[in-house]
Amino acid sequence: MSLLDAPAYDAARENRRRKRRIWAISIVIAVILIGTPLYFYLPYWRARRSVNHFMTALKSGNYQMAYYLWHANPKSYPMDAFMRDWGPKGEWGVVHSYKIIVVTAPPGPPASGLVALVRINQNPHEAKIWVENHNEDLSFYQF
After folding, report:
1. Residue 6 lies in a domain
2. Which of 33, 57, 75, 114 has the fewest Cβ atoms within 10 angstroms?
3. 111 with 48: CB under 8 angstroms?
4. Residue 5 lies in a domain
5. pLDDT tens, 115-143?
6. 59 with 86: CB under 8 angstroms?
7. Where in the sequence is the domain holding 115, given as residue range(s)?
8. What burial letters (b/e) apply to 106-127, b meaning 16+ CB within 10 Å?
């Protein structure tokens, strides 16, 4: 066999190669189409889930669990201060019902967390809860 002799054309091999390319391109497009919305929606879903767990613990009267979910530093925000804010004699009283109105990014430059507006006990004033993206720590939104 010399350098100028070419192997015979194999149509079946080319057909398999073309099908593999089409499948690979289809998979990449599917990952992009499914992954992009998930990438942008996932932090909002996680924040909503964290606030929902916290509010459910308050609603059931499990203040220890709610304090644990708040991820508070016991030195700077002890349990008695938490009870003054979220306990039965706190600003919101005993939580009978709640509704997460919206989870949104705060105004201004990109931030490290999201703000959840929660309506508690049909109170027209919403609770503003800050949710850190990287560890789901909860705190009061100050602005």
Report:
1. no
2. 75
3. no
4. no
5. 999 999 888 888 999 998 888 888 888 77
6. no
7. 11-140
8. eeeeeeebbbbbbebeeeeeeb
pLDDT above 70: percentage of residues in the chain: 98
What is the spatial order of strands in the sheet that 113-120 belongs to? 98-104, 113-120, 127-132, 138-140
- Cα separation, 31 vs 9, in Å, equals 34
| Assigned domain for 3 exists | no
pLDDT, tens only, 41-77: 888 889 999 999 999 999 999 999 999 999 888 888 8
45 inside domain: yes
Phi/psi for 108 (5° steps) reads 105, -160
φ, ψ of residue 98 in degrees (nearest 5): -155, 160
> Which of 117, 120, 67 has the alpha carbon at shortest distance from 93?
120
Beta strands in 2-134 (DSSP E): 98-104, 113-120, 127-132
Distance CA 4, CA 122 (A): 85
For the chain, what is the domain count? 1
User: Nearest 5°: phi and psi at 129?
Assistant: -115, 125
Confidence of residue 1 (pLDDT cuts 50, 70, 90): low
